[in-house]
TrEMBL record:
The keyword Acetylation does not apply. Residues 105-206 form the CUB domain. This is CUB domain-containing protein. Disulfide bonds join C162-C179. Signal peptide: none annotated. Gene3D superfamilies: 2.60.120.740, Spermadhesin, CUB domain (2.60.120.290). Keywords: Disulfide bond. It comes from the Eukaryota. The lineage of its organism: Eukaryota, Metazoa, Spiralia, Gnathifera, Rotifera.
């Protein structure tokens, strides 16, 4: 569920909020230098710089407080930012119909429904190790686009490694790799088929 983008003046705090049973997933965050004097909101033509490193939303939180740090931006002639601009989604943690919740390790069965939630074995209790890599395919008609969010990942491998424990999303163009503790809003995926690969080897994964 796309939400209205939020803006906050530098050196102040914004709250990103979802309703119960939904989680905040930030799609993008930018520091901005406003062309309009005194403005604390993004307008086209503003000088902006990536600010995703400033976002630290707790897993499974229905709200997230984000402090708009005042920073000097080399990308904007060393000016200080006037505001922080954040775009986010509210993503459900469960479905009203259990038939739309899928086990990532139920290999060999394609997912073709319009929406649903893909879960690891035993979720939301302790993550279970897998004896082999799990594969699950999502297929949609060619005239549709896939929206995909990673709402709750906390498995053992360090970020940047992802060898022993990982979630891979593979489309016709590239492979997205994630591990450790992370949330992620994938870009729009235009492939009619994507493969989700899930592997947990580290016993300490939770």
């Amino acid at each position: 569920m796309p939400m209205k983008p939020q803006d906050s003046c530098s050196s102040s705090t914004m709250t990103l909020r979802c309703s119960a049973n939904y989680v905040v997933i930030v799609k993008s965050a930018s520091y901005g230098v406003a062309r309009i004097a005194g403005s604390c909101a993004y307008t086209p033509g503003d000088c902006v710089a990536d600010a995703m490193s400033a976002i630290t939303c707790t897993t499974d939180a229905v709200f997230c407080n984000v402090f708009a740090t005042r920073k000097r931006l080399p990308q904007c002639n060393d000016q200080f930012n006037d505001y922080l601009h954040v775009e986010f989604d509210c993503v459900p943690l469960s479905m009203d119909d259990p038939a739309n919740e899928y086990n990532v390790c139920q290999n060999g069965t394609d997912i073709t429904s319009d929406y649903g939630i893909l879960k690891s074995p035993g979720y939301p209790t302790q993550f279970q190790t897998t004896t082999a890599e799990c594969f699950r395919s999502i297929q949609v008609p060619r005239n549709k686009t896939i929206r995909l969010w990673l709402t709750d990942l906390y498995i053992g491998s360090l970020l940047g490694n992802c060898v022993n424990d990982h979630v891979y999303v593979v489309d016709s163009i590239q492979t997205y790799r994630h591990c450790s503790r992370v949330r992620y809003s994938y870009p729009y995926i235009c492939s009619s088929t994507i493969i989700i690969q899930y592997f947990v080897k580290t016993q300490l994964s939770i």
